[in-house]
């Protein structure tokens, strides 16, 4: 309860700042001083001049100085190009990060999702470097850096998150029936190690609630497209996905009490696939009892066949059905990986996400008392383990299947290592939770620098480069 006034104060501040920025931008040609003068004069012209209370001399001096600074600052901002101003807005989010660090992890997460849903986050107006553009599954990505599932579990903030500059985002995991997940507390920060342990247990509002949100957004975009006066070019059609400027993935899970996992996933496919640019079968969360057994060769083969059949029996337009991926765990033996690779190749799976969180506790975190908490570990300590699994899977599939590298990425160099190890796309989560929006343009710029440094003209050229 104590956090509510602060949350409202923050929301009010952000809204007032956004309104001020829009007013300044609308009057950029005349500067903020001119805009204020115009507004003041127009008020006077109506003959309804407001009564100005008499202020003491010190008060008038302070008011005059403040107004002068605002006018001067606004006049300067009005001369700044859009790219520079956009950079300032992203850098400004660094000032808010310490505030989030003071909150309970789940409260901070809730507030971050709300901020993105309500547009209290910066919007990326700068174009991505051409070297970052790529096409996967017939879909054009402006960059390969995405947001992993788990952040926006219920598709509340798709538009705001894509506007941050991610090439794609993944919502979920979504379960057929709403469920609360495990009791709180269930998220723990290991700050010094740049890690998080969670045991949320697929807390979800269910497929119906998510379908309503995605359906509303889908309809909004279609309306915008039909009302546009400019005819779309072929490039415009290919750019982005069903959710707007970026690509949207939907991650499907099963309910804890369900005895028929395949039925749960099929329900998700039937209800949500029409809104997804790709679908993910999550069989690797460590927080749902028995879920990881679905990664076995026979179990996975049977499951994928049923889900593919459910997807393919639906009516699809020219674009065809959404690609189907499987997200696997990092805690797998070589035999397990060989089985998964064999199933993926035989059934022509569209991709694999490598990897989910780990139940292991690497040496880097063992000294932290919170390492004793049960749940999946994510963040920097997961990087080496998940990257080694990625390398192994790239070799087992001989590069025939697109892989998404996920686990421990906190810099452009980390993303580049995943790509060289075999990833076509990469995903963030924990580093984004710690670093906030400013991390996204930083990683993209660093990744572009790594590619250009080593002479690669595109991301695709660098995929699996360590094995050539």
Automatic annotation (TrEMBL):
What GO terms in the biological process aspect are recorded for it?
A: 'de novo' pyrimidine nucleobase biosynthetic process; pyrimidine ribonucleotide biosynthetic process
Alphabetized UniProt keyword annotations: Flavoprotein, FMN, Membrane, Mitochondrion, Mitochondrion inner membrane, Oxidoreductase, Transit peptide, Transmembrane, Transmembrane helix
Q: How does it sit in the membrane?
A: Single-pass membrane protein
GO MF? dihydroorotate dehydrogenase (quinone) activity
Q: Per its UniProt entry, which superkingdom is the organism in?
A: Eukaryota
Q: Where does the Dihydroorotate dehydrogenase catalytic domain lie?
A: 132-449
Enumerate the residue ranges of region (Disordered): 219-253
Database matches in Pfam families: DHO_dh (PF01180)
One Gene Ontology term, aspect cellular component: mitochondrial inner membrane
User: What's the EC number here?
Assistant: 1.3.5.2
The prosthetic group or cofactor this protein requires is: FMN
Q: In which compartments does the protein localize?
A: Mitochondrion inner membrane
Q: What is the free-text note on the cofactor?
A: Binds 1 FMN per subunit.
Q: Which residues form a coiled coil?
A: none
Pathway involvement of the protein, from the record: Pyrimidine metabolism; UMP biosynthesis via de novo pathway; orotate from (S)-dihydroorotate (quinone route): step 1/1
> What's its catalytic activity?
(S)-dihydroorotate + a quinone = orotate + a quinol
The Swiss-Prot or TrEMBL record describes its family as follows:
Belongs to the dihydroorotate dehydrogenase family. Type 2 subfamily.
HAMAP family cross-referenced by the UniProt entry: DHO_dh_type2 (MF_00225)
What is the protein name stated in its UniProt record? Dihydroorotate dehydrogenase (quinone), mitochondrial
Whose protein is this, by species? Linum trigynum
Could you read off the lineage of the organism from its UniProt record? Answer: Eukaryota, Viridiplantae, Streptophyta, Embryophyta, Tracheophyta
């Amino acid at each position: 309860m104590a956090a509510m006034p602060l949350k409202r104060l923050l929301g009010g501040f952000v809204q007032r700042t956004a309104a001020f920025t829009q007013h300044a931008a609308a009057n950029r040609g005349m500067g903020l001083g001119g805009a204020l003068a115009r507004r003041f004069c127009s008020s006077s012209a109506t003959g309804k001049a407001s009564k100005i209370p008499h202020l003491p001399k010190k008060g008038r001096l302070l008011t005059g100085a403040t107004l002068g600074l605002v006018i001067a600052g606004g006049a300067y901002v009005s001369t700044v190009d859009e790219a520079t101003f956009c950079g300032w807005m992203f850098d400004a989010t660094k000032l808010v990060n310490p505030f989030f660090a003071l909150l309970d992890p789940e409260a901070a997460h809730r507030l971050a999702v709300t901020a993105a849903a309500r547009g209290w986050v910066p919007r990326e107006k700068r174009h991505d470097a051409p070297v970052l553009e790529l096409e996967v599954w017939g879909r054009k990505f402006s960059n390969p850096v995405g947001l992993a599932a788990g952040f926006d579990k219920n598709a509340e903030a798709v538009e705001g998150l894509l506007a941050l500059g991610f090439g794609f985002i993944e919502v979920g995991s979504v379960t057929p029936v709403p469920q609360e997940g495990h009791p709180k507390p269930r998220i723990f920060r290991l700050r010094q190690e740049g890690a998080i342990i969670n045991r949320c247990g697929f807390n979800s509002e269910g497929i119906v609630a998510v379908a309503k949100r995605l359906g509303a957004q889908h309809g909004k975009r279609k309306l915008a497209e039909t009302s546009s006066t400019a005819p779309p070019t072929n490039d415009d059609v290919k750019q982005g996905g069903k959710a707007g400027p970026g690509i949207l993935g939907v991650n499907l899970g099963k309910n804890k009490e369900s005895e028929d996992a395949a039925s749960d996933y099929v329900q998700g496919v039937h209800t949500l696939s029409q809104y997804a640019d790709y679908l993910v079968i999550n069989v690797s969360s460590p927080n749902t009892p028995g879920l990881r057994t679905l990664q076995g060769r026979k179990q996975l083969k049977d499951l994928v066949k049923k889900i593919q059949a459910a997807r393919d029996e639906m009516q699809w337009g020219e674009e065809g059905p959404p690609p189907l991926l499987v997200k696997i765990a990092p805690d797998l033996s070589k035999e397990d990986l060989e089985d998964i690779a064999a199933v993926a190749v035989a059934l022509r799976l569209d991709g694999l996400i490598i990897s989910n969180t780990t139940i292991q506790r690497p040496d880097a975190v063992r000294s932290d008392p919170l390492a004793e908490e049960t749940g999946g570990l994510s963040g920097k300590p997961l990087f080496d383990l998940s990257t080694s699994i990625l390398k192994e899977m790239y070799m087992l599939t001989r590069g025939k299947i697109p892989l998404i590298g996920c686990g421990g990425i906190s810099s452009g160099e980390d993303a580049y290592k995943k790509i060289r190890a075999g990833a076509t796309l990469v995903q963030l989560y924990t580093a984004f939770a710690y670093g906030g929006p400013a991390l996204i343009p930083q990683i993209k710029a660093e990744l572009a620098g790594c590619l250009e440094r080593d002479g690669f003209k595109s991301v695709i050229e660098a995929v699996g480069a360590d094995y050539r």
